[in-house]
Design brief:
The chain has 360 residues and is α/β, with parallel strands linked by helices. It has helices at 14-32, 45-51, 57-64, 92-102, 126-129, 169-184, 200-213, 226-235, 247-260, 299-311, 316-331, 349-358, and strands spanning 2-10, 35-40, 68-73, 107-113, 134-140, 150-155, 158-163, 189-194, 220-225, 242-245, 270-272, 278-280, 334-335, 345-346. It has a ten-stranded mixed sheet with strand order 2-1-3-12-11-4-5-10-8-9, with helices on both faces. It has a two-stranded antiparallel sheet with strand order 6-7. Helix 8 packs parallel to helix 9 (247-260) and helix 11 (316-331) crosses helix 12 (349-358). Bound molecules: 1,4-dihydronicotinamide adenine dinucleotide and magnesium ion. Magnesium ion (MG) binds next to helix 9. 1,4-dihydronicotinamide adenine dinucleotide (NAI) binds at residues 73-76, 78, 93, 96, 264-265, 281, 284-290, 296-297, 300, 338. Catalyzes the oxidation of 3-carboxy-2-hydroxy-4-methylpentanoate (3-isopropylmalate) to 3-carboxy-4-methyl-2-oxopentanoate. The product decarboxylates to 4-methyl-2 oxopentanoate. One of its GO terms (biological process) is L-leucine biosynthetic process. Homodimer. Its cofactor is Mg(2+); Mn(2+).
């Protein structure tokens, strides 16, 4: 089969990690007889430099007309990049938000899995990790505070900034359904995370999630406040199977969960709508501090490509092969700097991509 993939390298380490994921996909193509055809488009800071906006209509259309999108990351140094002090709609991140919104990608799946080989890279004590860590964060991606109205103005001589957090019941229902569906394929436990003691949007969240739960009697539903969840993740990570949560809470909790897997460089993600189309990207950002140095861990992006094979192309065997190849590379003792431990061989971004591709 021929698959059309929009490749968006983006900024910082983006081009390096997307190159390695493509290398692995191409090897999958050779071994299993598929061909992946890539159309490369700009998004983020690089698009601002070339076109004056973080995402052009043409780039969005290219993505829309393809079978799936493979993305690196966008953005510069927070606080001191040339793209920072500009209007919100002209920042690199606005390109990504517009892409997610424009393609209706409301469901963000972030699996957090600790490979046994990386146990020593996990900062938690062995007795806390216990039998391992294997969970999924189902994060709502096109609503909430990241998409609410916002403004900054002076009130009585004092600067004031406002961000509005809104959810409607339909937005909550469709992500809740996705959360329960994925739980049905796993250990059938949903922990819905909110701040219902304070926020109205969280109260509605809780009510709608309860309603959806009635259609999934086999799934055990628990509610947890987000601050408690942040604590529980490092105190008793084994209790989590599926975390179902809104946009900003999911953003923050998934970075926390990523460290339990050893490094943010290990955490893949898929952003889906109701169709087979999806956008696949690592959960981390553009890491400007290590860009261009062959230091970035490409595994999160490679595992995101595996999710593309599984969710958008129904190529389960091929996705398994990629995940197995990653596992084998770790078994064979190769590590990028972020997951390095004693007795292992340190490799760069390019070599890590080669090692995974060789094992397909
Ligand atoms: P970041 O995730 O880019 O980096 C955080 C830390 O993790 C840095 O020390 C970085 O070197 C390290 N790191 C990240 N990915 C790594 C990898 N694959 N291998 C090894 N180390 C890795 O987050 P930060 O620094 O807060 O943001 C940098 C830029 O990225 C900002 O402009 C931010 O807005 C943007 N960003 C973009 C995202 C996206 O495109 N989806 C998501 C998150 C942030
Ligand atoms: Mg984030």
């Amino acid at each position: 089969m021929n698959y059309n993939v929009t490749a968006i390298p983006g900024d910082g380490i983006g081009p390096e990690i997307v190159r390695e994921a493509r290398k692995v996909l191409d090897q999958v193509g050779r071994v299993y007889g598929h061909s992946f055809h890539y159309t490369e488009v700009l998004m983020g800071g690089c698009s601002i430099d070339a076109h004056g906006v973080p995402l052009t209509d043409e780039a969005l259309e290219t993505a829309r007309n393809s079978d799936a999108v493979l993305l690196g990351a966008v953005g510069g140094n927070v606080g001191n990049s040339k793209w920072y002090d500009v209007a919100p709609n002209l920042r690199p991140e606005a390109g990504l938000l517009a892409m997610r919104k424009g393609l209706g990608l409301f469901a963000n799946i972030r699996p957090a899995y600790l490979y046994a080989e990386l146990a020593s890279a996990c900062p938690l004590k062995d007795e806390i990790i216990g039998d391992g860590f294997d969970m999924v964060i189902m994060r709502e991606l096109t609503g909430g505070i990241y998409f609410g109205d916002r403004w900054t103005k002076e009130v009585d001589g004092v600067m004031q900034a406002t961000d509005i957090l809104t959810y409607n019941e339909n937005e909550i229902r469709r992500i809740a359904i996705k959360g329960f569906e994925i739980a049905m394929k796993r250990r059938k436990k949903v922990i819905s995370v909110d701040k219902a003691n304070v926020l109205d949007s969280s109260r509605l969240w809780r009510k709608v999630v309860e309603e959806v739960a009635k259609d999934y009697p086999e799934v055990e539903l628990t509610h947890m406040l987000v601050d408690n969840c942040a604590m529980q993740l490092v105190m008793n990570p084994g209790q989590f199977d599926v975390i179902l949560t809104e946009n900003m809470f999911g953003d923050i909790l998934s970075d926390e969960a990523s460290m339990i897997t050893g490094s943010i460089g290990m955490l893949s993600s898929a952003s889906l709508n109701e169709s087979k189309f999806g956008l696949y990207e690592p959960s981390h950002g553009s890491a400007p501090d290590i860009a261009g140095l062959d230091l970035a861990n490409p595994i999160a992006t490679i595992l995101s490509a595996a999710m593309m094979l599984r969710y958008s192309f129904d190529l389960d065997k091929e996705a398994d092969a990629v995940e197995q190849a990653v596992r084998q590379v770790l078994k064979d003792g190769y590590r990028t700097g972020d997951i390095m431990s004693d007795g292992c061989e340190k490799v760069g971004t390019t070599r890590m991509g080669d090692l995974v591709a060789e094992r397909i």
